[in-house]
Design a protein that fits this description.
With 734 residues, the protein is of the alpha+beta class. Strands 1-6-2-3-4-5 form a six-stranded antiparallel sheet. Strands 14-15-16-19-18-17 form a six-stranded antiparallel β-barrel. Strands 11-10-7-12-13 form a five-stranded mixed sheet, sandwiched between helices. The longest helix has 25 residues. It is extended, with a radius of gyration of 38 Å. 24% of the residues are buried.
Length: 734
């Protein structure tokens, strides 16, 4: 509770004074700054609510008078017990207070200027001070607000014990609608993070997890671990069906009937389990058994190079800019790697700014199985097939269960066409492809050590790493092509540098092979596995790795999405001839990033090929199929917005016109044809004069020169005669 002591008389306003209204219990308006035209003040409550304090806002004298009522009083708020005892000189508490005051003192002094208290300047000054003293901006912001919250006193800089979570009292009890009127936002209705897909249908998740609920989660998970290996997915479902049902029967019933969204999500369950769980040795051993059992992790043993490839993608820790004249920051790329498990040879590396999809995986595989020299010479990257040998077709590719690796196109192209086994890992088993995971860490370390601008070393988890990431974003100067060049150089160095794991390959030592990934890969293909690249050309790889989708045939043309494709080779013409006039569905192959060409897989020689019409090609230039589908909702919104605005303008224009015009003008006089022609010339000349600022003299000169030529009637007769002759000529040809 807050101890408020009202003053008997109307006091002289000063900083720290608080206004309390009995109709708004528990809420106090504390003055932080006083100026000639008004004051700055902030709403305060209990000491525990100090961590939710908001920036002081301005009230003019009239606004401040409007807040005062017969039930309101000015007074002082007694400091809590933790802040009422001054710190002893030389104590650790006194040292902490002095250290905090040194950090915020320049900002507090700057806030004596009213201009600096505006929203923009308030945040900017705190951010500038935080960067200069290498302190987290959030920490400095909380210190300053706590200083004002407790009446602008240094003792307020002492950290208070963490109190209860924010309540919903502001909205229901006070009836106010924003923080300026003393409301404390409802934490349950203002959750952070991404909302679920069904939140629009079932509403947001308003269930608040209590300490008792956390205890039930831990108890449920431990019970399952005592029975044997389990996973968090099963534990989450078991908790909802047992412990949660007993504790919250009404909420559970609503959830089962689809009346509300999931009260405790899987992410929430994992958060509390990972943060609060303490296991005994037996339970911990049981949990490790689930994660490290080779039968579950699919950790296969490779007999030689070219047998098992591991593939994975990762977010690059570098910021890139566009390649335009005036570059802008375009964010961080996604990097794809394909590595041979036995030799540690990096078969392929690809970098992209697009969202993860099969199209990006497809480019990774194309780079792996085709010539490096031809492909990278277009980017100005010097790399030969000798420095980076072309990869062979593996027997197995081991990915995780990402949507880009488990798509239908991946199964069609890799499994069915290239005859490569796909062995995806179970969930939560990254050690099943530990080699590519270790490669990713190594590459990131080497890119950070390269000194490239825009690169940061660590994942932004703490204030220091976040500041490093922000500085990297501000210093970004490299384009996507620049980053790819740097990546290829690192990969070449990695493949030609001795690898610690290859020292254990005694067979390499026996034959005098240097323990580098490239040498081990090339020698192993010739002497161990004997695998060779399939007899495919670069064009064959391009066709076999295309994405798969559905299309239709109608009216002698192929239709895909909203576009029309025409046959471009003899196989396509023959395919259209043999197909029914209307075929609602057929399997096609295409590059969704460049959808100008569509092919149909065939085992009878040449593939039927269809090309996009010229009009559709112009409309879809520079945009992929996935981007077009992603923009569909945006396009619909833009259409609706423009249609609404144009209709509104038309309605407003019609409404502004007078309904009845009583003063009608006299009918215009009809002139003879000659005079009408002259009048037409004059009206047109007047319009041109206004458009081009021509003088009347120029118009007279123009009309005078034009009058020398043929009259309009002669020109009309000649044109009619020409058309008659043309009709006669066409009839004679028939």
């Amino acid at each position: 509770m807050t101890d408020f002591r009202a003053l008997p008389n109307q006091p002289t306003l000063h900083v720290g004074l608080a206004l309390h209204d009995s109709e708004r219990p528990g809420r106090y308006l504390r003055l932080t700054h006083i100026f000639e035209d008004g004051v700055y003040a902030m709403w305060v409550g209990t000491p525990e609510e100090a961590r939710y304090a908001k920036r002081p806002i301005f009230y003019s004298w009239n606004q401040l008078s409007a807040l005062t009522s017969p039930t309101s009083k000015w007074g002082r708020i007694v400091l809590p017990q933790q802040l009422s005892v001054p710190a002893e000189s030389g104590s650790s508490q006194a040292g902490k207070i002095q250290s905090a005051w040194v950090q915020i003192a320049p900002v507090i002094q700057a806030f004596e200027n009213r201009t600096n208290l505006s929203r923009h300047h308030f945040t900017a000054l705190i951010r500038e001070r935080a960067l200069s003293i290498d302190v987290a901006e959030k920490t400095l912001h909380r210190l300053i607000l706590r200083y004002y919250y407790f009446g602008s006193t240094k003792i307020a800089l002492v950290a208070l014990p963490r109190g209860p979570k924010r309540t919903t009292r502001g909205r229901e009890e006070s009836g106010e609608k924003d923080h300026a009127n003393g409301e404390i936002p409802d934490k349950a209705n203002n959750r952070r993070g991404r909302k679920t897909i069904l939140s629009d249908e079932l509403g947001p998740n308003n269930f608040v997890v209590t300490p008792d609920d956390v205890d039930d989660m831990l108890r449920c998970y431990k019970q399952l671990l005592r029975k044997g290996p389990t996973n968090k997915t099963t534990a989450h479902e078991t908790y909802l069906s047992t412990f949660f049902q007993k504790s919250h029967p009404d909420t559970h019933r609503q959830y089962i009937k689809k009346q509300i969204s999931e009260p405790v999500t899987y992410r929430q369950f994992c958060y509390y389990i990972n943060g609060e769980l303490q296991l005994t040795e037996d339970l911990a051993r049981n949990e490790r058994r689930l994660r490290r059992d080779p039968a579950n992790t699919n950790s296969l043993v490779s007999a030689g190079p070219g047998e098992i490839y591991e593939i994975d993608s990762t977010g690059g820790r570098l910021y890139l800019v566009s390649s335009e004249k005036n570059p802008v920051v375009v964010g961080k790329p996604t990097i794809y790697f394909l590595i041979d498990r036995w030799s540690r040879f990096v078969v392929s590396a690809y970098i992209s700014l697009r969202a993860p999809s099969y199209e990006e995986v497809r480019n990774t595989l194309l780079i792996a199985f085709t010539s490096r020299e031809k492909r990278f010479s277009r980017l100005g990257i010097e790399v030969s097939d000798n420095q980076w040998p072309i990869g062979c077709i593996p027997a197995v590719i081991c990915p995780d269960r990402g949507s880009d690796f488990m798509s239908g196109s991946m199964l069609q192209s890799v499994v069915d066409d290239l005859r490569i086994d796909l062995t995806p890992l179970p969930p939560l088993c990254p050690d099943g492809k530990a080699i590519v995971e270790r490669l990713i860490r190594t590459i990131k370390q080497r890119m950070a050590a390269s000194g490239m601008k825009g690169v940061y070393a660590d994942r932004p988890l703490d204030p220091q790493s976040r500041r490093a990431a922000r500085k990297a974003e501000a210093a970004a100067v490299h384009t996507l092509a620049d980053a790819y060049r740097a990546l290829i150089e690192i990969v070449k160095d990695y493949n030609n540098r001795p690898h610690q794991a290859l020292k254990r390959r005694k067979i390499l030592t026996q034959h005098g092979i240097e323990p580098t990934p490239k040498n081990a890969y090339v020698w192993g293909l010739e002497n161990i596995t004997g695998l060779r690249s399939a007899p495919y050309t670069e064009e064959d790889y391009y066709r076999l790795l295309l994405s798969s989708d559905k299309a239709s045939i109608s009216g002698g043309v192929l239709r895909y999405k909203t576009r029309v494709y025409h046959p471009s080779n003899e196989a396509a013409i023959d395919y259209i001839r043999r197909s029914p006039r209307n075929r609602p569905s057929l399997d096609i192959r295409l590059d969704k990033t460049q959808p100008a060409v569509i092919m149909i897989a065939s085992r009878h020689g040449e593939w039927p090929c269809f090309v996009m019409g010229a009009g559709d090609a112009r409309d879809s230039e520079g945009i992929s199929i996935d981007e077009e589908e992603a923009f569909a909702a945006v396009n619909a919104r833009l259409w609706a917005r423009s249609d609404h605005e144009s209709r509104r303008v038309r309605v407003a224009a019609k409404a502004a016109k007078p309904v009845n015009n009583r003063h009608k003008s006299a009918p215009a006089e009809r002139l003879p044809n000659v005079d009408m022609q002259r009048a037409r010339y004059q009206e047109t000349a007047k319009l041109k004069n206004k458009l081009h600022a021509q003088t009347h003299t120029e118009f007279e000169e123009h009309t005078a020169s034009a009058s020398v030529g043929k009259s309009w009637s002669e020109v009309e007769r000649e044109e009619k005669a020409r058309l008659v002759e043309l009709v006669k000529l066409n009839r004679s040809k028939r």
